[in-house]
Amino acid sequence: MKIFGIAAVLLGIGSVAMACDADGAAAVAQDVAYLPGGVMTYEVFESAVVHEDVDTCPAEFDPERVFCRVTLAGGAVHVFVFDLNDDQALLAVKPLALDQDGVLPF
Where do runs of H (alpha helix) occur along 1-92? Predict the structure, then answer.
């Protein structure tokens, strides 16, 4: 499945607001993770997306406010940037090329 296919599925899932609990947190019903307001949290990402943990993020992201995870798809690296605050919402996705040695550039 291509990345944009996953995004389309997640956007469709996020539109079902009645599946949120009283606090507005993502609720799971019949093995479906519903996303309140269409926001992907790290909790959902961690269980649904094959990824690798990384110790740092690209330089333009403040390490005091975010943490990052990476995926490999379509011959490219994608850095997923999550907020360190309460719900750990996905803030950005940055595609990157590996250097000549196959090493991340950050």
Answer: 3-14, 42-48
Q: What angle do CA 95, 11, 53 make, to 5 degrees?
A: 40
Q: Which domain holds residue 63?
A: 3-96
Average pLDDT over residues 46-58: 95
Are the CB atoms for 40 and 46 separated by under 8 Å? no
Residue 40 makes CB contacts below 8 A (sequence gap 6+) with 10, 14, 89, 90
Count the domains in the chain: 1
- Using 50, 70 and 90 to split pLDDT, how confident is the model at 57? very high
Specify the DSSP class assigned to residue 86: T
The answer to whether position 106 is within a domain reads: no
Stated pTM of the model: 0.67
